[in-house]
Design a protein that fits this description.
There is one protein chain. The protein is α+β, with helices and mostly antiparallel strands and 293 residues long. It folds into two domains: 90 residues, Phosphorylase Kinase, domain 1 (2-Layer Sandwich); 191 residues, Alpha-Beta Complex (Aminoglycoside 3'-phosphotransferase, Chain: A, domain 2), CATH 3.90.1200.10. It contains eleven helices and ten strands. The protein has a five-stranded antiparallel beta sheet with strand order 1-2-3-5-4, sandwiched between helices. The chain is globular, with a radius of gyration of 20 Å. It comes from Microbacterium sp. LWS13-1.2. This is Aminoglycoside phosphotransferase family protein. InterPro entries: Aminoglycoside_PTrfase, Kinase-like_dom_sf.
């Protein structure tokens, strides 16, 4: 194992930062152009992450770190610190943090793990807020673009989705810093402590967007995880509260889930992930069934 999957420019940059480093594990998911390597250098364990020219995830990860948003977790050891980065070369180095990936393990459906994840996410969301300025309408347009350009969804189901999107108007909910892929796939658990990895989908969005993947996966498998999560989070924004009643509520939650379902099915079809695509189609069926009630 080595650094052969990195570009020549990326390899040169890593060699400058970490001369003589040894790659000891390839942690890549191999679904996008991102390569993730666990490396050893001068007695330290580190993570090297590099992406291809067509991948935007590494830039978002740097936005999260350089914007100071990850610090709320770093201070207590819940996320890795950025050690080196080169945005132009699309490569960065992070500290390695301990823990076992919760995805598809008993920890992934452990209510106490979800309680801890809720506590962490609330601190992340509470750091900042900004006006929507049409972001929700733009998200609906992106969902429609998926329908326009992908053959993953049958024409009959597409028509039902377009009708639902038209009937659920965008809402200008305030935007907060979101992880974007908040699920056990990006949680490390170490003696009950939850740590967070992968900020490649970081962006400002409505807070409830960070709940959608959990709702389609682990909360469906073990509803006690959902209860524990919101006990940790402190409240459930999907229910509506304060002066933002219009921003959160059942109709907006359904809209978020519809858009996520479309994106999941179409993106997974595009990259050839049949299992994830099947999940997207199930999410679509569930959301359309709820819309029809």
């Amino acid at each position: 194992m080595g650094f052969g999957r990195l570009s020549a420019v990326q390899r040169d940059q890593v060699d400058e930062w970490l001369p003589g480093a040894e790659a000891v594990a390839d942690l890549s998911w191999n679904q996008v152009e991102t390569v993730v390597l666990r490396v050893r250098h001068a007695g330290r364990e580190l993570i090297v992450k590099a992406s291809g020219d067509g991948d935007h995830h590494l830039g978002r990860e740097l936005d999260a770190h350089e914007g100071g948003f990850v610090a709320v977790w770093q201070r207590r050891g819940h996320a890795a610190r950025l050690v080196h980065s080169d945005r132009a070369a699309r490569v960065l180095v992070l500290e390695w943090v301990p823990g076992e990936l919760a995805y598809r393990t008993p920890a992934g459906v452990d209510p106490e793990v979800h309680r801890g994840a809720g506590e962490l996410l609330r601190r992340f969301h509470d750091q900042a807020s900004r006006p929507s300025d049409g972001a929700d309408a733009a998200a609906t347009r992106r969902a429609l673009l998926w329908l326009d350009t992908s053959d993953a969804i049958t024409p009959e189901v597409q028509a039902r989705l377009r009708h639902a999107l038209d009937a659920l108007p965008p809402i200008d909910a305030d935007l907060v810093p979101t992880h974007g892929d908040w699920q056990p796939r990006n949680w490390l658990v170490d003696a009950g402590v939850v740590r967070v990895i992968d900020f490649g989908r970081f962006a400002f969005r409505p807070a409830a967007t960070d709940f959608v993947r959990l709702a389609a996966q682990e909360w469906r498998e073990n509803p006690a995880c959902e209860t524990a999560f919101f006990e940790g989070y402190g409240h459930d924004p999907r229910l509506g509260s304060g002066t933002s009643e219009r921003a959160f509520g059942p109709s907006h939650w359904l809209l978020l889930r519809l858009r996520e379902a479309i994106g999941t099915a179409c993106w997974a079809h595009q990259v050839g992930d049949e299992e994830f695509e099947a999940q997207g189609h199930r999410m679509i069926a569930d959301a359309l069934a709820e819309f029809g009630r």
